[in-house]
Amino acid sequence: MEKKNKVFIATSLDGKIADKEGGIDWLHSIPNPDNNDMGYGAFMEGIDALVMGRTTFETVCGFDMDWPYDKPVFVLSNSLNQLPSEYQDKAHLVNGSLTEILDQIHNKGYSNLYIDGGKTIQSFLKEDLIDEMTITIIPIILGGGTPLFGELDAKMEFECVETKLFLGKVAQNRFVRKR
After folding, report:
1. Where are the alpha helices (DSSP H) in 19-70?
2. Cβ 9 vs Cβ 136: under 8 Å
3. Are the C-beta atoms of 146 and 22 separated by less than 8 Å?
């Protein structure tokens, strides 16, 4: 089976995924009375498992809601020895090089992976391990915060294969890595 690492994320106009305080409340700055998921549900249907960093995992754990995933979640961390007990049946702690981690996950039968979290996405990009990115742009300039992209050793080419407009204000682009 073909293996794919995919990103589904929102940014501000200035390319930030969190504000200066690490907050993400601005993601809800556009009224969405019908709770349009902007393609998230369809994206998740094509995903076997999620790979996220510790910070993203801790952010999700802090949401005032039940665990939002019904698929396996792998949490990358070199600093955690174990996950909090209430999440040990919901997520798996993994560490090592990204290729070692991917081998572990693929050997468990998961091939279409959702890569989530700023540092995790940047790490996967540095090793040219992202095949597809869906980036939803919220029309707000935060003026600082956590960037989606970081420095790379070389340029990477992607092709925009789809563009959608949601709520008359939110642009979403799907990019596929040109290899």
Report:
1. 40-45, 54-61
2. yes
3. yes
Domain harbouring 139, CATH code = 3.40.430.10
Helix-strand-coil percent breakdown of the chain, rounded to 5?
A: 20, 30, 45
User: Measured between alpha carbons, how far is 109 from 90 in angstroms, rounded to an integer?
Assistant: 17
Q: What is the pLDDT of residues 63-113, one digit of tens each?
A: 888 899 999 999 999 888 899 899 989 999 999 999 999 999 999 999 999
d(C-alpha 106, C-alpha 95), whole Å: 15
End-to-end CA distance of the chain: 18
Q: 12 is written with which tokens?
A: 């501000």
Question: Taken in order 175, 73, 100, 104, is the CA torsion positive or negative?
Answer: negative
Structural domain for 125, as ranges: 4-177
